[in-house]
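Q: How would the structure tokens look for this protein?
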Amino acid sequence: MLLEGGMSKGHRILDEAWIAHMVMPCPIAPFYGQLLWLNRDGLAFRGASTQAYFMLGAGGHYVCVDPAIDAVMVLRWLDPLHAGTAIHKVATALAAG
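A: Here is the predicted structure in token form.
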């Protein structure tokens, strides 16, 4: 729903203004939005675009929404030490088409 601007099967589920608010950087932490980690500088999650945003959960669960490549990546039980490499490989492969 986040990738599709709040739409699901032709029905509005989330308000577009709320989604835009979620991806705006926090004034005291520009790498964080509303419940989302941002990649605005391209350094936090290399390989993902600067438009990408992430949800990180306990136990190594990652959800990456990357509008630049029209993709949502879900990674589960990922060792945080290898998260950057995994995200980079998947995002690069998807971007290559």
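The mean pLDDT is 89.

The two ends are 22 Å apart (CA to CA).

Upvote if useful.
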